Amino acid sequence: MSSINRILYTIANYDPRCVDNDKILDVREYYTLLNKLSEDGVNRFNNVLISMVRFLMQYLRANAKKKSKILKDITNAFMHVGFEDVKDSDMLYLVERVIIGDEVYRNPINVFNIDVRIFKAVLMRKLVHARIYVCDLNSIIAQYNLDQYFTCVKIGGVDDSKKINFVNRYNHYLYEFYFRSNDPNPLLLKKYLDNSRIQAMPHVYNMKDNDSKIIFSHELSLYGTFEQAEENIKEYCENITHYTKRMYELNYGEDALKSTTGQGNSRPEKKFEIYEECLGIYDRYKDIVPPDSSIDDDVFGDEIDQIEGTIDWPERQRLDCRKDIRKHFKNAQKLINQSSEGYLS
């Protein structure tokens, strides 16, 4: 039975189509790098290379309008220095080769190249998002002279600014409610405060402590048509995405809140408005209400009218206002207790 042809991706500092004396020098350099990486690092790096090929093919085949948008997104990723100010003369080529049996085919079937600054910026992003171990990452950085990019390229890939803002605000209210609890733990209080102030997090959850790792594997079969294989992969990826989403909702208060307040940003924003109102009402009445007690309308009703300036309102409106005050004060007490346990409902 004949062997199935495979594909090998490498990165070279030169165009291998123009090298006569050794057309697979990039392959030998690639294997030298792999020998420096852990087994996990090899797998993750190879996945990054596949992702790079996908990006380059998308870019090179795009029309002028789409290319312009891609370039804008990448150039906006540079911090501290401008895109045009980054000087880098090293060219990089991504090479696609065929492996027939155990032998690498000498002539590449594809060679991809774009502006080296874009190439390295995208590569750096994908390496970081692949969560490659630091020791492996350092070896790759040294191999392709990426050190300049590690410090000046904002690690993004998706526009998660709205999610970052949401997480910051959620932790802001965790801090505010916990600050009002009895004898708050200074370390936990600082954690909430720090998470509420980090506006340029490389990743929304980079400060979370969660070492749980679940390994998924998919057996790629060439039995059947490509269309069926593609559909199988799509369903498999959708299953992983669904499972991951449920894991985040289970482990992180921010996602748990979003999953219980409807889709989109409008419902969570409404939650934040309620939190703000609860805090204001709690601060106005905490000194006149005994600890762990509710606002009794018979005892505090007239005082509420005085504080809220509703004494001349029609009776129905005054009673509704008192009811809202009691409800928000009680809700604030509940949220203060929840904040001690690390979540808000």
Biggest sheet layout: 4 strands, antiparallel
Shape: elongated
Ranges where pLDDT stays below 50 over 5 or more residues in a row are none
Number of strands: 4
Helix content: 55-70%
What is the succession of H and E elements? EHHHEEEHHHHHHHHHH
Cα separation of the termini? 61 Å
- Oligomerization state of this entry? single chain
What is the typical, i.e. mean, pLDDT? 83
Tally of separate helices: 13
**Structure classification:** mainly alpha
Rg, rounded, reads 28 Å
Strand proportion, as a percent range, falls in 5-15%
State the gist of this model.
The protein contains 13 helices and 4 strands. It has helices spanning 25-36, 39-61, 64-75, 116-129, 134-144, 147-152, 161-179, 186-197, 226-251, 253-259, 266-285, 297-308, 315-339; strands at residues 6-12, 93-100, 103-104, 110-112. The model has no long low-confidence stretch (mean pLDDT 83).
Structure description:
- The protein has 345 residues and is mainly alpha-helical.
- It is 58% helix and 6% strand.
- The chain has helices spanning 25-36, 39-61, 64-75, 116-129, 134-144, 147-152, 161-179, 186-197, 226-251, 253-259, 266-285, 297-308, 315-339, and strands spanning 6-12, 93-100, 103-104, 110-112.
- Strands 1, 2, 3 and 4 form a four-stranded antiparallel beta sheet that branches.
- Helix 7 packs across helix 13 (315-339) and helix 12 (297-308) crosses helix 13 (315-339).
- The mean pLDDT is 83.
Write the layout of secondary structure elements.
Layout: E1 6-12, H1 25-36, H2 39-61, H3 64-75, E2 93-100, E3 103-104, E4 110-112, H4 116-129, H5 134-144, H6 147-152, H7 161-179, H8 186-197, H9 226-251, H10 253-259, H11 266-285, H12 297-308, H13 315-339
Antiparallel strand pairs: 1-2, 2-3, 2-4
